[in-house]
Amino acid sequence: QVRLEDSGGGLVQPGGSLKLSCAANHRSIVPLYTMTWYRRAPGKQRELVASLFSNDTTTYADSVKGRFSISRDNAKNSVYLQMNNLEPEDTAVYYCNARRTWTGTTNDYWGQGTQVTVSS
């Protein structure tokens, strides 16, 4: 059973920084899967924040470009989201996702989410 554990959320003032972590319990997940951070703000739909593909390419939502950075550490089976210059609009529950399609089968795993609140 694959599990992803999200952590690192908290309360931070505007302009501050946080680093989210997503730890997988299987060593094959982080290097082979597309790892994505999503977020859901109150009253809004889920939004893709950043993706890291197995070939090391990345994509970001326009709203976080230049402020957020996604990375991974294969040795620690972990993916990270470094968030700088945080804004109140970044307040949301952030979820880690691992997804891979292989021989016609898609495997899709989610973390439990971690709350990020940006407020003065």
The beta-strand count equals 11
On the 0-100 scale, what is the average pLDDT?
Answer: 96
Percent strand: over 45%
What is the radius of gyration computed over CA atoms, rounded to a whole number of angstroms?
Answer: 14 Å
**What is the helix/strand order?**
EEEHEEEEEEEE
Unreliable runs: none
The number of helical elements comes to: 1
| Cα separation of the termini | 40 Å
Classify the secondary structure makeup into a structural class.
mainly beta
In oligomeric terms, what are we looking at? single chain
Helix content range of the residues, please? under 10%
Largest sheet: 7 strands, mixed
Give the CA-based shape. Answer: globular
Task: Note down, in words, how this protein is organized.
This protein has one helix at residues 29-32, and strands at residues 4-7, 10-12, 18-24, 34-40, 47-52, 58-60, 68-73, 78-83, 92-102, 105-110, 114-118. The chain is mainly beta and 120 residues long. A hairpin with a 6-residue loop joins strand 4 and strand 5 (47-52). The longest helix is centred in the N-terminal third of the chain and has 4 residues, at 29-32.
Chain-wise SSE layout:
Elements: E1 4-7, E2 10-12, E3 18-24, H1 29-32, E4 34-40, E5 47-52, E6 58-60, E7 68-73, E8 78-83, E9 92-102, E10 105-110, E11 114-118
Parallel strand pairs: 2-11
Antiparallel strand pairs: 1-3, 3-8, 4-5, 4-9, 5-6, 7-8, 9-10, 9-11
